[in-house]
């Protein structure tokens, strides 16, 4: 899981994410991500998938739509390595 800034868009209630960061799985071999491409194509006619997300304030899990393998990677928060 990688610490990532929420995207500037939101879906649903229009209130935004209300978080400074969340944890995103960027494992491109994860079955959730891999199978998401076919699921989105078959059920919604879209070229997209989704990634697993964990919300830090309450530990809830969610899915977030991505349109490419690089989706959300621009929001990765790089933190200094501990010594």
Task: Please tell me about this protein's structure.
This protein has 83 residues and is of the alpha+beta class. The chain has one domain (2-75). It has one helix and four strands, in the order ββαββ. The chain has a four-stranded antiparallel beta sheet. A hairpin with a 6-residue loop joins strand 3 and strand 4. The longest helix is centred in the middle third of the chain and has 14 residues, at 31-44. The protein is globular, with a radius of gyration of 13 Å. The two termini are 21 Å apart.
Instruction: Please list the strands of the largest sheet in the order they lie side by side.
Output: 1-2-3-4
Q: How would a textbook summarize the main sheet?
A: 4 strands, antiparallel
Oligomer: single chain
Distance between the termini: 21 Å
Which term fits the overall shape?
globular
Secondary-structure element string: EEHEE
Rounded radius of gyration (Å): 13 Å
Task: Indicate the low-confidence ranges by residue numbers.
Answer: none
Q: What is the percent of helical residues?
A: 10-25%
Number of structural units classed as domains: 1
β content, as a range? 15-25%
Instruction: Give the strand tally.
Output: 4
Structural class: alpha+beta
**In DSSP terms, counting alpha (H) and pi (I) runs of 4 or more, how many helices?**
1
Q: Quick check: average pLDDT?
A: 90
């Amino acid at each position: 899981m990688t610490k990532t800034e929420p995207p500037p868009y939101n879906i649903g209630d229009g209130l935004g994410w209300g978080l400074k960061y969340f944890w995103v799985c960027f494992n491109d071999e994860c079955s959730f991500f891999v199978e998401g491409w076919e699921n989105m194509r078959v059920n919604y006619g879209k070229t997209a998938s989704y990634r697993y997300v964990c919300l830090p304030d309450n530990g809830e899990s969610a899915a977030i739509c991505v349109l490419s393998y690089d989706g959300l990677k621009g929001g990765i928060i790089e933190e200094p390595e501990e010594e």
